[in-house]
Design brief:
The structure is a single chain. This protein is mostly helical and about 140 residues long. The protein is built from 4 helices and no strands. It has a domain of about 60 residues. The protein is flat, with a radius of gyration of 31 Å. The relative contact order is 0.07.
């Protein structure tokens, strides 16, 4: 008599394991159930990737106005930072590569979190403009 593998036994004999009723979890009892394939709430009214709604229409107007103000402030700050960079290179205090190295290295506590990244982005934005102030048209 040949021994059948468990897989062959299942396929030929049609015997399937059935989990006891006590171990089955009822999904429809929770309000935060998600569909596995679409990542959407099954019983909720809003999708996962949707932004939460504003508390009121007035709040939305105020937030958008304040974001415009913040954008203008950051734009002015970036212009002033670029001016400081240009003045240092034009005045011969340092060259463009010294500035780049100073942005990359140095004490961590000289700026707050995110400010160094902001300055790096500004440097990448205006890096090519520094070539005209160098002797050979190169950054160094």
């Amino acid at each position: 008599m040949s021994k059948k593998s468990n897989y062959k036994k299942l396929m030929t004999e049609g015997v399937y394991f059935q989990a006891p009723k006590s171990s089955v979890i009822r999904v429809n009892s929770t309000k935060d159930a998600f569909d596995f394939f679409t990542s959407r709430k099954v019983f909720g009214e809003r999708r996962i990737d949707e932004a939460p709604a504003y508390s009121s229409q007035e709040a939305k107007i105020h937030v958008e106005g304040d974001l415009d103000k913040m954008s203008k402030i950051l734009g002015k700050a970036s212009q002033q930072s670029i001016k400081v960079m240009m003045d240092g290179v034009k005045g011969g205090k340092y060259d463009a590569m010294d500035l780049a190295r100073g942005i990359q290295t140095g004490p961590v506590k000289r700026t707050h979190l995110g400010e160094t990244d902001f300055i790096k982005q500004l440097w990448n934005k205006v890096r090519d403009g520094f070539r005209r102030y160098s002797k050979r048209g190169k950054l160094r």
